[in-house]
Amino acid sequence: HAIEIRTTKPFTDQKPGTSGLRKPTKTFKANQYFENFIQAYFDDLTETMNGKPPTLVVGGDGRHFVRESAQIIIQMAAANNIKKLLVARDAKMSTPAVSCVIRKYGTDGGIVLTASHNPGGIDNDFGVKFNIANGGPAPEAVTNSVYDKSRQLTNIRLCPTLTNIDLLTLGKHTYEIEGRSIPFEIEIIDSVDDYVQFMKEIFDFDKIRNLLNGEKGKFPIMINALSGVMGPYVLRIFHQELNAKNAVTVKNCENLEDFGGHHPDPNLTYAHELVEDMEHGDYEFGAAFDGDGDRNMILGKGGFFVTPCDSLAVLAANLNVIPYFQKHGIHGYARSMPTSGAVDRVAAKNQKLLYEVPTGWKFFGNLMDSKLISICGEESFGTGSDHIREKDGMWAVLAWLSLLANIDRSVEKILHAHWNTYGRNFFTRYDYEEIDGPGPFSMLKKLEQMCMSNELVNKSFNTPYGNKQYTIKIMDDFHYQDPVDGSYTEKQGIRIIFTDGSRLVFRLSGTGARGATVRLYVDSYENNPSTYTKDAQEMLRPLVSLGLEIAQLEEFTGRDKPTVIT
Ligand code: VG1
Ligand code: CO
């Protein structure tokens, strides 16, 4: 096969956000937009690898353009001196499985074709994320360097005759490429095998099997894959490995190009079907995943909602029931800045270190590589551990089932016991999605100015709703210095911390593909047991109303209510 060098014109907007580059699918498909971004990555990789031909993993969440884009990557990899590609069968592989495979086979990294929780299809979004050799998302130093290259790109390299590679049949192919000193190899690998094998090493599958169908009787659960990439993993683990077809009801386990019209984000709004099933059905436990399988939502009987912040804290407090942690020990914990402080209390009690990082999984990687942390999570339905370097929805579900098998068969009781020990952090997030115009940016600017001037510090406010009083102790723009490599990241969200420890956080989303999305996070701690059963929305309404007033959110955005509340 011959290499073609094709001229192209650079784009100026290929800057990856919180988690890869996400744009409307049509943008990626037009004017070699996708090809340009991949070429910029290959250019960067060639440089950092010092000419040593890399081996990479390629997989995606099955959304529209994943198969096609995998074929493009194959053509371009052949022409860019990539030694070998490990491509998932049908190009479908969950994000955590990609991380697992990179680590297992010691590859130099991977390309994940996903816009994760963003809707898919020709009229929705597509995305690309680069992972590094530790299996995690590339840090900013890498993504910035790729971005710089993308802005100066003048040509792309490809082997146009390498067409229609059979991605459905497992096996190895080798191709001679003109002008290359080594052949180009492709291996089509099973998307599910390596991952499932790893889960069986981490968890006690016999115990979980016994929970679902043991001497104590059936334990019915409901799993909803929202038509994302997780379907085959769910069927394999629950119906085959755990042999629990009668106890485990599954929904939307067929991976569809447009996710069947679902917004594949496992929260109370977009995974409403699961909420309703739990409210009306007789299930003890329910879970949903996002499009690429790294997020999870956990519900208990009757639809009892476990906030991701509490999920992280409860898992952190009980890791000792999981064989992996019995073997590897438990280092510290970490959470993203907007995530509630529930896990901080577990860290304090267990005398573990607690790290607070900016939003996005890439910030946890160094901490895990250096064995500073074992478990970490984000309020955005992301939970994971140092078994891989991505958040992992199935891992969280199996971890919860381990707790249910070992501690108590009721999710709600586990939560109540936790609150009785540690107190309860009430948490909520308000999202104002896809706002047009400059309003959100002006709002953040104004909040930044308030931080700089310190004008609100030590001031007391009466809440517009509920007439409670709060005094501001700190107001700042969150920044982070990585304790391992010293890298510095600033402007990661406006924090308003009150004298009672309650917090309000404002930031703009970095994963949207259209308009601007404002997120308001609210975290407030209570240690009066009579409050533990109260509704979080009711408890937090006064603080929310104060946040909206301080930021003048409605004036800036024109929105009088959020699009999603979690
Ligand atoms: C959101 C979440 C963040 C998460 C990121 C990627 O980012 O808030 O916690 O890491 O999505 O998740 P943002 O910038 O929109 O707030 V995933 O499952 O979409 O890769
Ligand atoms: Co995701």
From TrEMBL:
Gene Ontology BP, a term: glucose metabolic process
Cofactor dependency: Mg(2+)
GO cellular component annotations of the record: cytosol
Residues covered by the Alpha-D-phosphohexomutase alpha/beta/alpha domain: 14-153, 194-299, 327-422
Family matches, as InterPro entries: A-D-PHexomutase_a/b/a-I, A-D-PHexomutase_a/b/a-I/II/III, A-D-PHexomutase_a/b/a-II, A-D-PHexomutase_a/b/a-III, A-D-PHexomutase_C_sf, A-D-PHexomutase_CS, Alpha-D-phosphohexomutase_SF, PGM
Catalytic activity: alpha-D-glucose 1,6-bisphosphate + L-seryl-[protein] = O-phospho-L-seryl-[protein] + alpha-D-glucose 6-phosphate; alpha-D-glucose 1-phosphate = alpha-D-glucose 6-phosphate; O-phospho-L-seryl-[protein] + alpha-D-glucose 1-phosphate = alpha-D-glucose 1,6-bisphosphate + L-seryl-[protein]
Any one GO molecular function term: phosphoglucomutase activity
Listed EC numbers: 5.4.2.2
Keywords, sorted A to Z: Carbohydrate metabolism, Glucose metabolism, Isomerase, Magnesium, Metal-binding, Phosphoprotein
NCBIfam families: PRK07564.1-1 (NF005737)
UniProt similarity note: Belongs to the phosphohexose mutase family.
Name of the molecule in the record: phosphoglucomutase (alpha-D-glucose-1,6-bisphosphate-dependent)
Species name: Rotaria sordida
The organism's taxonomic lineage, starting at the top: Eukaryota, Metazoa, Spiralia, Gnathifera, Rotifera
